[in-house]
Amino acid sequence: QVQLVESGGGLVQAGGSLRLSCAASGRIFGITAMGWYRQAPGKQRELVAVITSDGSTKYADSVKGRFTISRDNAVNTVYLQMNSLNPEDTADYFCNVRRKIITLEYDYWGQGTQVTVSS
User: Fold this and answer.
1) What pLDDT is attached to residue 1?
2) How far apart are CA 32 and CA 94, in angstroms?
3) What mean pLDDT do residues 26-47 have?
């Protein structure tokens, strides 16, 4: 199993910044990607950003140029730097880790951290 501990959410005014962190522990071998998803009230969970083991990144169009995902392999932690936040970014943010063992893939989720952006 993989345990994920998230931190960094909170309340911020529009235009402000927040940095989310997610530390992975446990059976962390075989991790192929780490990422962030979000879910706003009444909406489906959506991908925000993902970073693979080789450092490739992918972002949702709505956050490109404002959010930056990074990872520190030494401490098995993924970060999401969120700048120029707007009220549409308000959501619960979930850390995701994907492991691949031979041909099987496993997804692990954090408990979520709330981000609220006031106008």
Assistant:
1) 87
2) 17
3) 94
Instruction: Tokens for 43, please give them.
Output: 């909406």
Q: What is the pLDDT of residue 28?
A: 86
Question: Are residues 74 and 60 in contact, defined by beta-carbon separation less than 8 angstroms?
Answer: no
Dihedral angle over CA of 4, 16, 58, 24, nearest 10 = -10
d(CA 24, CA 72): 11
Closest C-alpha among 83, 78, 95 to residue 39: 95
Secondary structure of residue 8 in the 3-state scheme: coil
CA-based nearest residue to 51, from 77, 28, 74: 77
Q: How far is CA 55 from CA 33, 34, 51, in A?
A: 9, 10, 6
Q: What is the mean pLDDT of residues 43-63?
A: 97
Indicate if the pLDDT at residue 27 is higher than 90: no
**16: which 2 tokens?**
């402000």
